[in-house]
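Researcher: Next sequence.
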Amino acid sequence: MPRPALLAVSHGTSDAAGAAAIALLVRRVAERLPDVAVHSGFVDVQQPDAPTALAAVEGPVVVVPLLLSQGFHVRVDLGRAVSERSDAVVTDPLGPDPRLAKVLALRLADADAAAHPGGGTDRPVVLAVAGSRDPRSLPDAEAMAALLSEDLGRAVVPAYLAAREPSLTAARELHPDAAVATYLLAHGYFFDVAERVAGSALLTEPLLDDGEPPAPLVDLVVDRYLAGEAELRQLRGH
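Model: Next structure:
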């Protein structure tokens, strides 16, 4: 019996580099799962939208949100899209997860090395999160900050680019010497906001830059799929 398809659903972006980086991530996931049909969909900006992409997939499908926290898109948009199908499940979003902390730490190390070639720094870190009005997103952001703090061994303060407080502007005022870790999947609108607000502060690239997707991120998407596949098997009594 064929394995369930994987529908990778990202937010969508009008930034060409960001869109290309996410598409490359999906291709690398597909290479890791050669016997799985892998498709892409979006909750905003790009096409096909999630319901259209889901309708085009015949048979069982695991929807993996390429999103970093619980929120309206995961709970409502994607939950509604699969609600009338008994052969489709939505997995957890990508974050929070220790593997994302590893990628964030790598981005910080790269930025520190570029800014301070003679050695690293123990400056505090502000974690720049997109932000959501959905209350479920708040503990996810705080948990991600805690995971990164544990990985780095230094203080990490979450701040938000929209919808929540403290804003990145306020966090920068409180911690003017802090580095800003970009907790975004790829370049796009929110990275542009972060870059503008960060000003002269050290600012990291998003989780995906213009190079190869980090292996921990590919692993994470694959593991979300495998968890969804197991859930579908249980629901179908196999």
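Model: The mean pLDDT is 93. Helices lie at 16-32, 50-55, 72-82, 98-115, 137-152, 168-174, 189-198, 215-235.
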